[in-house]
Design brief:
The chain has about 525 residues and is an alpha+beta fold. The protein contains 18 helices and 24 strands.
Length: about 525
């Protein structure tokens, strides 16, 4: 039996950009194993693509054989049902899709060959719990006495939800639109954030990551927090009016960096208060946390450092890119009691076995200051590259970091750049707790270095003194490469940024990689371990 989870609720677009729903995706599982995860943007090459209705027939045709099939569709606040553009697939829930871990049965009308229908079972799962369930392929099962949390800009009927998992049942603790509305909206609709970053309202999907990075350049100021709270963070006011009010209060140049740092601190405080409050109510020992808000990595690290949970888990596809996977995984998990544990490389491409034959040459050239793109094996799921679709360079050179981030990638100077490091380096540079953190394996936390290690990472040390490192595990090629750099050249890690240009999705195929490497001006591109000229 093949389980197909999909997130493809149709939405309008403005100027070619998604209005509300975005990052459409499809996941395929069988007998508890992930077969493939398809992020629509990776195959169409349109960032945040929300046109799954136009491509679902092609995606299914290339991946579905003659075996029995069941569909699980994820809803959103704009709708519950899914219909392909050509009418060949319709998934219609038989009732309302409320906030529940129980999938709603759905009628499936599927005509893959045209006139002849094909039988298939179907369900619809709420957006909230699909986020939570996207953790399952990376942890196998939820530990008993766990807190399951989703925080997002907007799911189906809430912006945050919390569930207590007793080992066999997920019990809803709270779901709310309002509880975290202000801190979340400060990162996607705030006129202050748009003014500080120079973004338009249509660029709301780029705002959270940029604003989080920008906040690291400022100071948390109690007066500014009081000022922002007095004005309800200006969320309901037009940008022109906000500009006038800020100038009246601060002069021609408001302290945007300090405002950003203060807003970031408010976000951390409010999310922490909510999660720890739910923990007090349930007594949960473990935290499984997903949704777009879980990409705010200083908050993740702060939750982990609170020591209120024995373990803290966030999936690599914590935003909407993981919804199809969460839907498929939940059906498989309910049926089987567990699913296979995976690393993040679930987007199947052309990748075969990755050769280690050229590791020494690649390490020598990286140590000499060259910049390479990596396109090895299967691709990462989620918005962050973790070594298979990455641009890499040594992390101890400020000029090299500027070349990678600002010249090659076209990123703003205020945005942080993350390194990837070996476990043995992490234990020395951060300590054993960080090295063993599940967050560190997926570049989902931020930590401070031990004294004396700053010089090894001066190219990637953020303005706030944090390092947003990925500790590499179970990746033979990258571990071998990092090992050569550390033991032969004294280079403690590598800059790791996603392999794509401005406004582009991460590369998926080897052809994508060669084309992007040429356009971006990389010194070389590594394809399944072999070094090539762009």
């Amino acid at each position: 039996m093949l389980t197909v989870g999909l997130y493809g609720i149709k939405d309008t677009t403005q100027g070619g950009r998604p209005t509300y729903t975005h990052d459409h995706n499809v996941a395929f599982m069988r007998e508890g194993r992930v077969i493939d995860v398809v992020a629509l943007e990776r195959i169409t090459r349109r960032k945040h693509d929300n046109r799954l209705d136009e491509y679902i027939a092609e995606v299914l045709r290339e991946r579905v054989g003659d075996e029995p099939v069941r569909f699980v569709s994820v809803n959103a606040f704009v709708g519950d049902g899914f219909q392909s553009a050509d009418g060949s697939l319709r998934i219609e829930p038989t009732g309302p899709v409320g906030i529940s871990a129980t999938p709603v049965p759905a009628r499936v009308r599927w005509y893959p060959g045209g006139l002849h229908p094909r039988a298939a079972a179907g369900w619809a799962l709420c957006h909230e719990f699909a986020h939570v369930a996207s953790l399952l392929p990376f942890v196998g099962r939820f530990e008993p006495n766990s807190l399951l949390v989703h925080i997002d800009g907007g799911a189906s009927d809430s912006a945050c939800s919390a569930w207590w998992w007793d080992g066999s049942e997920a019990r809803l603790v709270e779901a709310s639109w309002d509880r975290l509305k202000v801190p979340v909206n400060n990162f996607n609709t705030s006129p202050i954030a748009r003014m500080a970053l120079g973004l338009g309202p249509e660029e709301h999907l780029a705002m959270p990551g940029k604003f989080m990075g920008f906040a690291g350049h400022g100071r948390v100021v109690p007066f500014l927090r009081a000022f922002l709270e007095e004005h309800s963070f200006f969320l309901d006011q037009p940008e022109d009016r906000v500009r006038v009010l800020l100038r009246a209060a601060f002069g021609s140049e408001p302290p945007f960096a300090d405002l950003a740092a203060t807003i970031q601190a408010h976000f951390e405080d409010e999310v922490m208060a909510a999660i720890l409050g739910w923990q007090e109510v349930t007594g949960a020992a473990h935290l499984y946390y997903a949704g777009g808000a879980a990409l705010n990595i200083p908050t993740n690290a702060r939750i982990e450092a609170s020591a209120r949970f024995r373990s803290v888990h966030v999936p690599p596809c914590t935003n909407d890119t993981g919804l199809g996977l969460g839907a498929a995984a939940w059906i498989e998990y309910v049926e089987r009691g567990e699913v296979e544990v995976n690393g993040p490389f679930l987007a199947r491409g052309e990748g075969g076995e990755v050769s280690l034959a050229h590791v020494d040459e690649i390490a020598d050239r990286l140590a000499a200051g060259e910049v390479f793109g990596l396109c090895n094996g299967d691709a990462e799921v989620g918005p962050r590259a973790l070594g298979h679709r990455s641009i890499v360079a040594r992390p101890d050179d400020i000029a090299l970091r500027k070349r990678v981030s600002e010249t090659i990638k076209g990123r703003e100077a205020y945005r942080p750049v993350a390194p990837m490091i070996l476990d043995e380096v992490a234990r020395q540079a951060f300590g054993s707790d960080v090295a063993a953190s599940p967050l560190a394996a997926l570049m989902l936390g931020a930590w401070c270095l031990q004294p004396g290690w700053e010089g090894w990472f001066k190219g990637v040390l953020h303005a706030d003194g944090s390092l947003r490192a990925q500790v590499v595990r179970d990746d033979p090629f990258v571990e071998a490469l990092l090992g050569r750099l550390w033991h032969k050249h004294g280079v403690a890690g590598l800059i790791n940024t996603s392999f794509n240009g401005p406004g582009e999705p991460i590369v998926h195929t080897k052809a994508d990689a060669i084309d992007s490497a040429r356009r971006l001006g990389l010194d070389g591109v590594v394809l399944d371990g072999s070094l090539h000229r762009p």
